[in-house]
């Protein structure tokens, strides 16, 4: 197979590439990434020298760059590339509209030109908005995004479905709950709290910390994405969840317990604007149709994640300091 991955230097994209190369070493994998702040090629050091792996720096809003990078008749595009941090979208939505909406449409257009055989769009549970207690967001549920980030991802989904309906593009959509695991950029909840705790720094807690998120280990998510890509029904949407919904404060307390650190590190800060109270996806469809189940229990996965960060201080230091950005900017230059 020839695989074209957008955003493959990010947290989930790099995990997907590492797992795919290990599982299918003879497949060609092209990683197309702009290398914004969240794109870190340190995440792909273990596959960088593989003959079947290729990195191309580029912007998904640049149709010419996409045409040059996507091989004719490409077997599959897996579209991870996105601006994804809610706080950043509240400060400025422009970058989110450009990348998540315009970039997705540009990629869809070029995918059709190139005769791409399968297109997997990676979305988020946040497009469904806050879910009431004792309810779950199903694939056919209404979209009710609450943040500029979620709104941009909902718009991207509509464009993918339009391409499938109007042009017959073989497209699928996945919506995944909160991922965690190795190589996650330290602005997200778990790696931020973990790296702060290791340095005995305060850990910010939005509001009362009772916002509920469903947690899934990135390896479980990648296993689900492989199944969807290989066996999912064209045009279908699949929810991928860890069946581990927990309040943020509970997650942070568990992390500190595993580290042997005091809960006094938890420091309440002003809540995020428009903060959704609860996300919870119904993932019974992928379990029923494709036989997928999450394998990593949350506490076990959190302990493994802690161990990885403790054992990889160089990666942590480069990620927190931004050293990796300087290094790769010098290597690849400005777009």
Automatic annotation (TrEMBL):
- Is-annotated flag, keyword RNA-binding? no
| Requisite cofactors | NAD(+)
**Record-stated family:** Belongs to the NAD(P)-dependent epimerase/dehydratase family. dTDP-glucose dehydratase subfamily.
Catalysis: reaction(s): dTDP-alpha-D-glucose = dTDP-4-dehydro-6-deoxy-alpha-D-glucose + H2O
Give the GO molecular function terms.
Answer: dTDP-glucose 4,6-dehydratase activity
Which Gene3D superfamilies does this one have?
NAD(P)-binding Rossmann-like Domain (3.40.50.720), UDP-galactose 4-epimerase, domain 1 (3.90.25.10)
> Which Pfam families does the record cross-reference, listed alphabetically?
GDP_Man_Dehyd
Q: Where's the NAD(P)-binding domain? A: 4-304
Keywords, A to Z? Lyase, NAD
What the entry lists under SUPFAM superfamilies is as follows: NAD(P)-binding Rossmann-fold domains
Record-given protein name? dTDP-glucose 4,6-dehydratase
EC number(s) recorded for this UniProt protein: 4.2.1.46
The kind of enzyme this is, by top-level EC class, is lyase
Query: Which InterPro entries does UniProt cross-reference here?
Result: dTDP_Gluc_deHydtase, NAD(P)-bd_dom, NAD(P)-bd_dom_sf
Coiled coil start-end: none
């Amino acid at each position: 197979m020839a695989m074209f991955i957008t955003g493959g230097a990010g947290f989930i994209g790099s995990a997907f590439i590492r797992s795919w190369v290990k599982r299918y070493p003879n497949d060609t994998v092209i990683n197309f990434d702009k290398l914004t702040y969240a794109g870190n090629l340190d995440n792909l050091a273990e596959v960088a020298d593989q003959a079947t792996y290729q990195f191309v720096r580029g912007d998904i809003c640049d149709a010419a760059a996409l045409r040059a990078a996507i091989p004719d008749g490409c077997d599959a595009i897996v579209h991870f590339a996105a601006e994804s941090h809610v706080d950043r979208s509240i400060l400025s939505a422009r970058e989110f509209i450009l990348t998540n909406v315009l970039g997705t449409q540009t990629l869809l257009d070029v995918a059709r030109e190139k005769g791409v055989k399968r297109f997997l769009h990676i979305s988020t549970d946040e497009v469904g908005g806050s879910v009431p207690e004792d309810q779950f967001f199903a694939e056919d549920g209404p979209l009710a995004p609450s943040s500029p980030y979620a709104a941009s991802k909902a718009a991207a989904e509509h464009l993918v479905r339009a391409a499938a309906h109007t042009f017959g593009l073989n497209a699928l959509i996945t919506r995944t709950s909160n991922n965690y695991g190795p190589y996650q950029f330290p602005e997200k909840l778990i790696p931020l709290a973990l790296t702060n705790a290791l340095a005995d720094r305060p850990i910010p807690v939005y509001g009362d910390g009772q916002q509920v998120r469903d947690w899934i280990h990135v390896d479980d998510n990648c296993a689900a994405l492989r199944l969807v890509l290989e066996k999912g029904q064209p045009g279908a949407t699949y929810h991928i969840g860890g069946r581990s919904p927990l309040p943020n404060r509970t997650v942070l307390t568990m992390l500190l317990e595993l580290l042997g650190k005091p809960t006094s590190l938890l420091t309440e800060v002003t809540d995020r604007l428009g903060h959704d109270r609860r996300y919870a996806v119904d993932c019974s469809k992928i379990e029923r149709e494709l036989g997928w189940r999450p394998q990593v229990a949350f506490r076990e996965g959190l302990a493994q994640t802690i161990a990885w960060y403790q054992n990889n201080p160089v990666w942590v230091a480069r990620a927190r300091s931004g050293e990796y950005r300087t290094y790769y900017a010098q290597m690849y230059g400005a777009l």
